[in-house]
Amino acid sequence: MAAKDDELDSLRDEIDGIDRSLHDLIMKRVQVTRRIGEIKKAAGDGAAFFRPGREALVLRGLVARHRGAFPAGALVRVWREIMGATLCLQGPFAVAVFAPKDHRGYLGLARDHFGTEAPMTAYSRTGQVFAALRDGTATVGLLPWPHESHSDPWWRHLIAKDENPPRIVAGLPFIGAARDRGDAVRGLLVGRHSAEATGRDRSFLAVETTSGVSRPRLREALGAFAPSPTPVAVLRGNGGEGTDLHLVEVDGMIAADDRRVGDLTRKGDGTIHAATVLGGYAEPISAADLGVEAAAQ
Which value, to the nearest 10 degrees, does the dihedral of the CA atoms of residues 275, 55, 72, 292 take? Predict the structure, then answer.
């Protein structure tokens, strides 16, 4: 019995040493990320510390290299907490969340992604989220995933003539939703940042067309964005008299100056009057990604 107790004490001491090493590395990581923030601030690029594309690459890399019994999903949540906390240390950071009383799940979705330390404010209307972005109260805003049923879709406000309009920069959840909420709550992060390509991405386009264009006809007109441009929603008459405004999701991270976007109006048959890139997001870590990893453990 004494030998068994000695072995347990030895293993507990080993765990204590590992914990101290992990803690030391976290503190060192914070020092490095703060230095990055200082360098970017000195270069006049103080807002660039928020890089959702790079975060996506880091998290995918962790899942790909992970081994052992510890759940990969839990590992990603640990890193999301670290990333959220260090965002707040690199510069002013706050999240504006669309979360009316009947949609409080969006607050939980934002907290899952940015962790316990990130300042968050709930708003009952999508317009208030955009106002917080404009006046600098918020760095990013979380808005509902676009749907055909939305009577006043927020995405039309991204079609702005501003020099630096808000853009879609990330999709949430990046990994499966918390068990107590299921997978129903999805949202898009909007901010004044550049969405970075990660190799597995999706983008949104706002496409103004002649009124009454069908979805199959729209897909045909968007053939340059094969294999599968996906119409998400349409505002009949919102593009102006005799026109409709469509929200379309396409493969890849599409830059604002992508030649294909300009060609839609220059080389088309007149069906498409205008097209605007609204930003994009890194494809999330799927259940299949985690399932493959779990099977390999």
Answer: 40
